[in-house]
Sequence to fold (415 residues):
Amino acid sequence: MSKRVVITGVGVVSPVGTGKEKFWSALTNGVSGIGPVTRFDASDLPTQVAGEVKDFEPTQFLDRKEARRMDRFSQYGVAAAKMAIEDAGFDLDTVDRDRFGVVLGCGIGGMETFEDQAKVMMQKGVGRISPFFVPMMISNMAAGYISMNLNLRGPSETVVTACASATNACGSAFRLIQRGDCKAVLTGGTEASIVRLAFAGFCAMKAMSTLNEEPAKASRPFDRDRSGFVMGEGSGILVFEELEHALARGARIYAEVVGYGSSCDAYHITDPAPNGEGAARAMQAALDDAGLKPEEITYINAHGTATEKNDYFETLAIKSVFGEAANKVAISSTKSMTGHLLGAAGGVELIASALAVHDDIIPPTINLENPGEGCDLDYVPREARKLTVDTAISNTFGFGGHNATMVIRKYRPGE
Fold:
């Protein structure tokens, strides 16, 4: 019989704040974390805004020497993991560390290190490249550092499926506990790609917003005047825990994880499949896994990138799966405030979904003033909504046609 899985801790590093309280306060108050790019000179690029993390000090979580040998994405991941453990109230000396895993998603990895070391090679020669270059850059290193920092000896893995990475990681963590392989897993994602090279690459694709004059309004999911996504950075890490294990130690439970679905469009390297059919298959698979009907879902945290095709096709996918219930479900894109955290998006957004379930409040889609053509569902525009949130879905879709969906619900003792 499958084990039941619950969320007992969360940790966040995000453009709207570091720590659960800052993050959730910003989202529920509709506060944008988007501003002018400060990490490099973006004046010659068509996009000059981003969701930078502004309040992070790595030495609050790491030894100074160790922090210097870690790329920013690993720093974010370790910090969010430590916050999640603290939030869960874990005394790690009392747990079976051989059955405590780490499964993260990361879409790109140490892009800052890659860019820095490429400059070193071109300007000073190959003899000056850091011996830490490869260990700092590779995408699995955040998960490795978390396992080492916390001495967690269960499975330690990294999933790379572009912007679906963190959700696929959460799905893998869910299965590890369901099967009985682990008692608990730290899962979610981390990303730090706001560097000139990556930025220029997305600009070359014409994928990012060019609404530079008012940065806080640049991310406009489902809006008629959207012009692309805004790049964000950060980390969202959750503690997934076997229900009986959580109950035995008297843990607070944010939500129960009940379903996971994954699919591939098998269509195009960047464009979603026509009518969002791949996304629809992931949502349907997650609902089937959860044993829930569309009309039982209260809230969808949408992928909602503010790109023309994604917003429209995700809307079509929801209509395809939900039928008449599509007009009754509340939907929002928290990317309107955080920007798009790429491989970390699913972790941060599942945290937002879990807090919505726990606190009965749905964060809004800010900047939604005039819905775009075909975007005609309830996207909770501009202001948060108090509502009993029994169940929630979190969607993430990525380049390569990767689609992933998680389903969570209120934990009800006795069920």
The chain has two domains: 5-248, 259-409. Residues 5-248 form a domain with the Peroxisomal Thiolase; Chain A, domain 1 fold (CATH 3.40.47.10). The CA atoms of residues 223 and 371 lie 4 Å apart. The longest strand covers residues 5-14.
